[in-house]
TrEMBL record:
Coiled coil segments of this chain: none
Domain of life: Bacteria
SUPFAM superfamilies linked to this entry: Winged helix' DNA-binding domain
Gene3D superfamilies registered for this protein in UniProt: Winged helix-like DNA-binding domain superfamily/Winged helix DNA-binding domain
HTH arsR-type domain boundaries: 1-95
Annotated protein name in UniProt: Transcriptional regulator
Keywords, in A-Z order: DNA-binding, Transcription, Transcription regulation
Originating species: Pandoraea terrae
Length: 113
């Protein structure tokens, strides 16, 4: 990941509503959630949600897909993992240390390229 892309992603997440949306979508996993479900769970106005989803999409953190009359938003797991990798690539400067290991393993598996 390039530094510019990391800054864009981090800037998008540096806002409480967007961070809440992203964390909700990560919890939902690759299938994502409909706009209506996101709106209901986070109690957001439609225009507010739309604005924040646009920002997260622009940052490459979420994707959308249309299924019938519903729009689903899902986390871009691959992009998220690249961001985490960028943030941790120099952790402990190559020294094998338990302090550098992830604290908690997730259930999501990377999506093949």
């Amino acid at each position: 990941m390039k530094e510019k892309d990391a800054i864009t992603a981090l800037a998008a997440l540096a806002q409480p509503t967007r961070l809440s949306i992203f964390r909700l979508l990560v919890t939902a996993g690759p299938e994502g959630l409909t706009v209506g479900v996101i709106q209901e769970k986070l109690e957001l106005a439609g225009a507010t949600l739309s604005f924040h989803l646009k920002e997260l999409t622009h940052a490459g953190l979420v994707t959308s897909r249309q299924e019938g009359r519903f729009v689903y938003y899902a986390p871009d797991i691959k992009h998220m993992n690249k961001l985490v990798g960028f943030l941790t690539e120099n952790c402990c400067q190559g020294v094998d240390s338990a302090a550098c290991a992830p604290q908690k393993k997730g259930k999501c598996k990377p999506v093949p390229a």
